[in-house]
């Protein structure tokens, strides 16, 4: 994109994006001979420009309340937080109350730790043998 200097004769159509990647392409002459292009930096207006609200930067955006995303996002975060709390405290309370489950859980954690240490030490020994390092 850095060496792109002209978009002439490419038969492009639609709204010219106003994202950060294309901010350097603001010369209207590079969009000549593409009559179906609309929006800044050209002088052609896009269909529906007058109907959509604009932000301070001039980008077209939909009203957030129009499609209900704000309400749905609030419930999404509420349910995510409550799900985390119920899951976390469900496990913690179970481990506190059930003595046999607590012992089984910590025995599993201990066994996994011992297995990981054994695998790491075997791999280190194998690597030393392959590299003929011996004991360092």
Automatic annotation (TrEMBL):
Keywords: Glycoprotein, Membrane, Receptor, Signal, Transmembrane, Transmembrane helix. The chain crosses the membrane at residues 75-97. GO terms for cellular component: membrane. Residues 47-59 have a biased composition (Basic and acidic residues). Residues 36-67 are annotated as: Disordered. The keyword Glycoprotein applies. Gene3D superfamilies: Ribonuclease Inhibitor. It is a single-pass type I membrane protein. It is found in: Membrane. The keyword Membrane applies. It comes from the Eukaryota. This is Uncharacterized protein. It comes from Vitis vinifera (Grape). The lineage of its organism: Eukaryota, Viridiplantae, Streptophyta, Embryophyta, Tracheophyta.
């Amino acid at each position: 994109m850095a060496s792109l200097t002209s978009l002439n004769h490419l038969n492009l159509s639609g709204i010219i994006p106003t994202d950060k990647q294309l901010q350097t392409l603001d010369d209207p002459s590079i969009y000549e001979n593409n009559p179906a292009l609309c929006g800044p930096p050209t002088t052609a207006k896009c269909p529906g420009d007058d109907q959509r609200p604009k932000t301070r930067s001039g980008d077209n955006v939909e009203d957030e309340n129009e499609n209900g995303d704000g309400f749905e996002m609030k419930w999404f975060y509420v349910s995510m937080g409550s799900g985390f709390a119920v899951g976390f405290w469900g496990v913690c309370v179970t481990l506190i109350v059930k003595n046999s489950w607590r012992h089984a859980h910590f025995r599993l954690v201990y066994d996994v730790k011992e297995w990981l240490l054994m695998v790491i030490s075997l791999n280190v020994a194998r690597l030393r043998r392959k590299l003929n390092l011996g004991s360092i």
